Amino acid sequence: MRSKKPLQRAILLPRGLPRRRITQSAPGQIALLHAIAHIELNAVDLALNMARRFTKTQLLVDFYHDWLGGADDEAQHFLMLSDRLADLGAAYGDLPAHDGLWQAADATKHDLLARLAIAPLVLEARGLDVTPTIIDRLKSVGDE
Ligand SMILES: [Fe+2]
Q1: pLDDT tens-digit profile of 96-117?
Q2: Which of 2, 19, 14, 30 is nearest to 138 (CA)?
């Protein structure tokens, strides 16, 4: 069951976050899943920001619809991770997180092409590159 408490999170600089090793005990899995949930929630915010921020740029309406659909997808991912965190007795907001994605969003807020180059093509792509490793790490501690 999902937590009913409001989302609260401590935001730190990326290098300010403690590094945690994943183990068969819950804290390492919670830390990893919490970090991924934070990325998914940021992806919701970034997709909604894309759908709204660049409305003065004359683009096909499909551009905006695609970003709204992406926000919905990312929200589903966040909720699935929230459910998994709840299975482990935790909730999003229990641990600090970083604002690295928003720093990139802020730095590119006036330039659509820069935003598209940095957010989906670099940051999201980097996240996808590490996904197989994350899957292996979770499987290695018995979390299918
Ligand atoms: Fe996602």
Answers
A1: 888 888 888 999 999 999 999 9
A2: 30
Q: Which residue has the tokens 């991912």?
A: 77
Distance in Å, CA 104 to ligand 1 centroid:
18
Q: What is the pLDDT of residues 120-139, one digit of tens each?
A: 888 888 888 888 998 898 89
For residue 51, the CA-to-ligand 1 centroid distance in Å is: 17
The kind and range of the H/E element at 12 are: strand 11-12
Question: Which amino acid, residue 33?
Answer: L
DSSP state of 3: -
Tell me the DSSP string of 59-87.
Answer: --HHHHHHHHHHHHHHHHHHHHHHHHHHH
Dist CA 49 CA 3 (whole Å): 26
Task: Answer for the pair 7, 93: CB distance below 8 angstroms, yes or no.
Answer: yes
